[in-house]
Design goal:
Layout lengths: L1 E5 L3 H11 L7 E4 L2 E4 L6 H7 L3 E12 L7 H12 L6 E9 L6 H21 L4 E4 L8 H6 L2 H4 E8 L3 E10 L2 H9 L13 H10 L8 E4 L6 H8 L4 E6 L2 H17 L6 E6 L13 E7 L12 H23 L2 E16 L2 E3 L3 H7 L2 E3 L20 E3 L6 E10 L5
Parallel strand pairs: 5-6, 5-7, 9-10, 9-12, 10-11, 12-13
Antiparallel strand pairs: 1-3, 1-4, 2-3, 4-8, 7-8, 13-14, 13-17, 15-17, 16-17
Helix pairs in contact: 1-8, 3-4, 8-9, 11-12
Length: about 425
């Protein structure tokens, strides 16, 4: 069985996983931070590279009842020692603990596994093996710690998934490539933080949420900005990507960023079309329907946190008028089985969130909201916005994002 450690936005990460994995994967939630799956035949490294909302992927080794943890200490210890002895050179290993946030015995459990690690280190030294036990201030090792300490190639990261009934012992097989994500975010030639910039991880996640096969699908971003969505779609293997924006500078930035991406990934050959055109009039330039539209809409004027409620209501009204005209036009560009994944703004001011009535607006434009989460998932993952979207926010941000998956009404086919 395979385990997936989810990122900072578990509901979004699970939605991505559900969209990417085959239907027979049999997903189940073990706790609020991880998902288990059967029937995973795809290479772990390929899957890790594709997913942006999953931090680690690994293989389960053993399950123990939580109540008998201390009695099972010797067995757990032996399983790990036997595995580590397969490495001929210096052994480097570490532990990560994933528990529910409300786990009352977390400190006690953390102490137990720290002691276990020291015991394993001691027994390996007694067998004249050079060994290092990697620890962290956090209860779980980050991807950076795992990768920089060469745990996956010199020993292992052993993961303990804990809920109130059971403890699962697993071994990490892949971790997220933090350096590649950072390079695409901060190393590309053109970044425009002032106008609001979609993070590459969120862009990748949104492209994955379409559920489309990249090898035979066309993707459109009608508000392409500096090209983040197009870059991630290209890396996922989309053979035809189209970007448009009303701003000339945005298209220039997009072209520079895509050229930089292809130079750094010379094996990637993608057909790219770019237009300087507003979304409402894009049908003048685009004469064939597309398989999917993935975009972040205009998020409104910069937020200072000082606007009055009346001003906020006016901003909402202006945006809704713009969105209504825009999405009525964009619907006509989708194929009958097309999918639209869109990020809308959520304004945050004085500890209050201002949501837009997206559901009614987009339904009137001929779209219906697609529920991205599996029906059998526990309530702690069912964290949806008033309109049925999923929330993406960072600490300190004045504008969060509400992510939706839309499909055409049958009446619009």
């Amino acid at each position: 069985m395979t385990f997936f450690i989810l990122g900072k936005h578990p509901s979004l990460s699970l939605s991505e996983l559900f969209a990417v994995l085959p239907q027979n994967a049999c997903l189940s939630a073990f706790s609020q931070t991880n998902i288990l799956a059967n029937q995973i035949n795809e290479d772990w490294s390929i899957l890790q590279d594709r997913l942006s909302g999953v931090i680690k992927i690994g293989q389960l080794l053993k399950e123990f009842p939580f109540s008998s943890l201390k009695k099972e200490k010797e067995q757990i210890e032996q399983i790990i020692i036997d595995d580590l002895l397969l490495f001929e050179k210096k052994i480097i290993f570490g532990f990560s603990l994933y528990t529910d946030p409300l786990q009352k015995q977390q400190k006690e459990i953390q102490k137990f596994f720290f002691t276990l690690g020291l015991s394993i280190k001691k027994k390996l030294k007694e067998q004249h093996r050079s060994v290092r036990f990697v620890t962290s201030k956090e209860i779980a090792l980050s991807s950076v710690v795992v990768k920089t300490n060469h745990l996956l190639t010199s020993g292992g990261e052993y993961v303990f998934l804990v809920n109130n009934q059971n403890i699962l012992l697993g071994k990490t097989r892949t971790v997220q490539d933090f350096s590649a994500w950072s390079k695409r975010d901060y190393g590309r030639p053109c970044r425009d933080a002032k106008s609001g910039m979609l993070p590459p991880k969120l862009a990748r996640l949104m492209v994955n949420l379409t559920g489309k096969n990249p090898t035979n699908s066309t993707l459109l971003d009608p508000f392409c900005g500096s090209g983040t969505v197009l870059m991630e779609a290209g890396l996922l293997g989309y053979q035809k990507i189209i970007g448009s924006d009303i701003a000339v500078k945005a298209i220039q930035d997009t072209k520079k960023n895509l050229d930089w991406l292809w130079q750094n990934n010379p094996t990637t050959k993608i057909q790219t079309t770019l237009f300087v055109e507003g979304a409402q009039t894009l049908s003048k330039k685009l004469h064939e329907p597309v398989d999917c539209i993935v975009t972040e809409t205009y998020l409104g004027p910069p937020q200072t946190g000082q606007k009055t409620r009346k001003q906020m209501e006016q901003i909402k009204k202006d945006l809704l008028d713009l969105y209504e005209k825009t999405f009525r036009s964009l619907v006509s560009l989708l194929k009958n089985d097309g999918v639209m994944v869109v990020a809308f703004p959520v304004f945050q001011q004085n500890h209050e969130r201002f949501f837009l009535p997206i559901k009614s607006l987009l339904e009137s434009a001929g779209l219906s909201i697609h529920d991205p989460l599996p029906t059998n998932i526990p309530n702690f993952f069912q964290k949806k916005t008033p309109s049925g979207g999923l929330l993406y926010e960072r600490e300190g941000q004045r504008v969060a994002r509400e992510i939706f998956i839309f499909k055409k009404h049958s009446s619009t086919y």
